[in-house]
Amino acid sequence: MASSILPGKTRKNCVRSISLPARFHSSTLRIEEELNKLKAWETTTTASHGNVEMIHSGLSGLKDLYDCVEDVLQLPLTQQQAHNYSDEKLVDEVLDGSVGLLDVCDTTRNILMQMKENGRDLQYGLRRRGTGAESTMESKVDAYICCRKKLRKEMLKCIGLLKRMESKFIGSSYPLLLDQNNHLVVVVVRVLREVSSITISVFRSLLSFLSAPSSSKPKTSSRWSLVSKLLHQKGQITSFNGKHHQDDDINIDNEVESVDVAIHNLSSCRKNRTSTLEVAQKRLNALEVSIEGLEDGLESMFKCLIKTRVSLLNNFSVCQSRDLIIRIR
Question: Any transmembrane segments, and where (predicted)?
Fold first, then answer.
């Protein structure tokens, strides 16, 4: 269970209890419920390494959470206290966190789009028949692998950024001083810290799923050696000796990684490629469907993040403008 975000439960040094308006209290309770669901999801995902269905579930849960957050931000009392809030450092923390998550979400959307286009281009090469089909397939596979490596570097950069953001939230010791004049804003800041933390977790799971970590296998002289670099476990690739794996021989939950394995199988089997070709096409089709589903979920999240940022800017813009005028004077 997540720690409570409501005042009186987390601040032992509160001199007196501060009651919350009924509607505000109800909204924050719903946020706590959604946070607890996502924390349970986080535990399950960590234990099972995640698959596309679990990532979908995480994105869907995030959308529900942000809908609840938006309800709180739109409350008149929240807006009134936010307009009068004078703690510039906390305001900057809130606004910087929102734009950081928005940037990562947008980058991930672009990565998904490129992955889908890259997969479709490879499918075209695998469907090619007749003169030049072999060279076309090899060039398309090479292009697919190069794109995968480039996108994986981008994903690892995003994961690194999310880790730094997470460390910043965890390491934040800036106090949230509670009094009758700012108690709603303080609760909102607590909420946003928790929400940002779980958002980082979901995005990291998504990017880890898409990046399908590379193997530490040494380089070989084969033009296909780049494929094996993208595989997750050494034990998944064995010597073929002129044979190929059937589709059911390897059970991989990660659709991205399963395509890497299928391509390796295809490139390693120089004769009788019909079966391995069908497997590769089947897995590429499955990956495209998965990517489209993730695109839908991420598009919804992007809209939620934009809406939240607009609400934050509207709520805190007055106090920021006032502080700027004071500094100029």
Answer: none
